[in-house]
């Protein structure tokens, strides 16, 4: 693992600053798509997406992540013009009414440019600047931040867990020799190698390290064990000198864990959604306790509550010595 780049991890973008050690932020997902794996079509439209974003803010989300292309297993490519048509009006509508942090989930440089021009604060690139060769150069001259995600699908395209995903560009970024070597690496080492390459691209384009946060790519072409191990080892990102952005909400390894324990995960039922969100929130409490700076979630309230408990446990020495009265006798 390379030498630490920031002595104290920070994430600085526009006029915002997120420090390692601060309370964990909750980032609510707004999928402006007809086919996202858990809420496809529910917020497909400017008004619906805007209302959903406001609802998430009211539920405790301090950040909103807007996406115009599903990247779930089996999803299909969305043309640049269509993706821009989906996300830009939502950004503008939300920015006109709120100073909430807005990130845009895209790996295409044209969409990123349009999103930044519309008022987005952060570009959330699930290819870690490798999917589109122009992405780093588009972000560099702006004051926007970037979420650099390591994408195992790109470095292990033939892995059984990766074959169900679409391809995300990055053609020729890694040599055949590198791709062959990746097959022998465990997930933690693989993600480290991916970050090395992404950060090379960022540095070459002139993106300051403080404008970057790292995401280990939970759920993308990984086995159940690998997903849990990467979460367990996520503080390695802090050791590199970067803040961490983590997305675990409603991921398939959570569904598998619940299903094997006999819990319902049927997305067609309210019970299935509730069970998945309860398990996802449990991970949010753990992540907040670990000091993960940002958590990407589908619903606000349960994750906000979970992070509140995790943050208080981690930051217990800063809490007031509140005294409690006796329970009332009935």
TrEMBL record:
Q: Does the keyword Transit peptide apply?
A: no
The record's Gene Ontology cellular component field reads: cytosol
GO molecular function of the protein, one example? metal ion binding
Which PROSITE patterns does the protein's record reference?
DHPS_1, PTERIN_BINDING
Main EC class the enzyme belongs to: transferase
According to the entry, every stretch annotated as the Pterin-binding domain falls at 24-309
Q: Give the pathway listed in the UniProt entry for this protein.
A: Cofactor biosynthesis; tetrahydrofolate biosynthesis; 7,8-dihydrofolate from 2-amino-4-hydroxy-6-hydroxymethyl-7,8-dihydropteridine diphosphate and 4-aminobenzoate: step 1/2
Protein name in the entry: Dihydropteroate synthase
- Under which EC number(s) is this enzyme classified? 2.5.1.15
Checking CDD domains in the record gives: DHPS
Return the InterPro entries for the record. Answer: DHP_synth-like (IPR045031), DHP_synth_dom (IPR006390), Dihydropteroate_synth-like_sf (IPR011005), Pterin-binding_dom (IPR000489)
State its cofactor: Mg(2+)
Presence of keyword Manganese: no
Role played? Catalyzes the condensation of para-aminobenzoate (pABA) with 6-hydroxymethyl-7,8-dihydropterin diphosphate (DHPt-PP) to form 7,8-dihydropteroate (H2Pte), the immediate precursor of folate derivatives.
**In its UniProt record, which GO terms are filed under biological process?**
folic acid biosynthetic process; tetrahydrofolate biosynthetic process
Family per similarity comment: Belongs to the DHPS family.
């Amino acid at each position: 693992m390379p030498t630490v780049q920031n002595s104290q991890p920070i994430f600085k973008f526009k006029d915002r600053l997120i420090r390692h050690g601060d309370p964990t932020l909750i980032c609510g997902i707004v999928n402006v798509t007809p086919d996202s794996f858990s809420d496809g079509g529910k917020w497909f439209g400017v008004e619906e997406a805007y209302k959903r974003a406001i609802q998430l803010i009211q539920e405790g989300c301090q950040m909103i992540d807007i996406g115009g292309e599903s990247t779930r297993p089996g999803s299909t490519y969305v043309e640049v013009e269509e993706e821009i048509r989906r996300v830009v009006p939502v950004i503008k509508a939300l920015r006109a009414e709120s100073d909430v942090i807005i990130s845009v989930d895209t790996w295409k440089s044209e969409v990123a440019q349009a999103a930044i021009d519309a008022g987005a604060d952060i570009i959330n690139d699930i290819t870690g600047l490798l999917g589109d060769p122009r992405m780093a150069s588009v972000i560099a001259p702006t004051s926007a931040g970037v979420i650099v995600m390591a994408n195992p699908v790109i470095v292990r395209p033939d892995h059984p867990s990766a074959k169900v995903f679409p391809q995300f560009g990055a053609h020729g970024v890694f040599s055949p020799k590198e791709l062959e070597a990746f097959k022998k690496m465990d997930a933690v080492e693989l993600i480290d190698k991916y970050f090395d390459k992404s950060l090379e691209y960022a540095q070459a384009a002139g993106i300051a390290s403080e404008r970057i946060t790292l995401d280990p790519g939970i759920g993308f072409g990984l086995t159940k064990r690998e997903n849990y191990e990467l979460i367990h080892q996520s503080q390695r990102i802090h050791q590199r000198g970067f803040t961490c952005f983590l997305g675990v909400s409603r991921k398939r390894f959570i569904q598998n864990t619940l299903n094997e324990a006999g819990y319902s995960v049927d997305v067609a039922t309210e019970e299935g959604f509730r069970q998945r969100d309860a398990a996802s929130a449990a991970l949010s409490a753990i992540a907040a306790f670990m000091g993960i700076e940002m958590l990407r979630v589908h619903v606000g309230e349960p994750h906000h509550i979970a992070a509140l408990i995790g943050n208080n446990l981690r930051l217990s020495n800063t809490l007031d010595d509140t005294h409690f009265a006796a329970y009332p006798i009935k």
